[in-house]
Design goal:
It is a single chain. The protein is mainly α. It has 9 helices and no strands. It has helices at 3-11, 15-18, 28-31, 41-54, 61-73, 77-83, 92-107, 126-140, 142-183. Helix 4 runs parallel beside helix 6 (77-83). The protein starts with a helix and ends with a helix. The mean pLDDT is 82.
């Protein structure tokens, strides 16, 4: 087993241990398929891409969507779910701003309205601020509606290619190291 797989096996939960939990035991017949836990380059790369794509979805829907897509495409379930965690309260606004700009770029001249300023946190409670942020996001309209899924697709594709390339480079370096080791004997 390669070092990448060993490292991933240490980070990710063992599915047999998960299914011993009384809250997850009922899922065992549905999720105890080897494809959902496989550690090969194709399945991990696609799971990573799914996680990056679903990570831009709002709230708890991102992990649910990543799990459903992982099941649909029969890729590594934990990698797909864990990868969605790149979004958090600190990264949401910068990512959505990037998605808005990306949407404007993709739309070209169809949308020439300037972006409104984000609501200020200082004068309001959390609930009021969240309502203001929701109204602000709704006012961003079409560039955001186009930019979020397109940014998700772009991040997913880039993540897929990076994982595949990184895994391939690691394998080539391991082959070279093994060849050098065998040559020095």
């Amino acid at each position: 087993m390669s070092r990448i797989r060993k490292h991933l096996h240490k980070l990710l939960p063992d599915h047999h241990t998960l299914f011993q939990n009384r809250y997850l035991r009922w899922l065992a017949p549905y999720l105890d398929h080897p494809a959902f836990w496989a550690m090969n380059r194709r399945k991990v790369a696609l799971a990573f891409a799914i996680g990056l794509f679903c990570g831009l979805m709002p709230g708890p829907s991102q992990m649910i969507a990543a799990a459903l897509l992982a099941l649909l495409f029969r890729v590594n379930l934990p990698v797909a779910i864990v990868t969605t965690l790149y979004t958090n309260p600190f990264t949401y606004l910068p990512l959505y701003y990037l998605a808005y700009q990306y949407g404007k770029l993709l739309m070209g001249r169809m949308n020439s309205r300037p972006m409104t300023v984000a609501p200020d946190w200082s004068n309001s409670s959390l609930a009021e601020w969240l309502q203001q942020v929701a109204a602000w996001a709704a006012g961003l309209g079409m560039p955001l509606a186009i930019g979020v899924p397109m940014l998700g697709l772009t991040l997913g594709l880039a993540g897929y290619l990076c994982v595949r390339a990184g895994w391939r480079c690691y394998i080539v370096m391991a082959w070279k190291k093994r060849k050098e080791w065998r040559g020095s004997r």
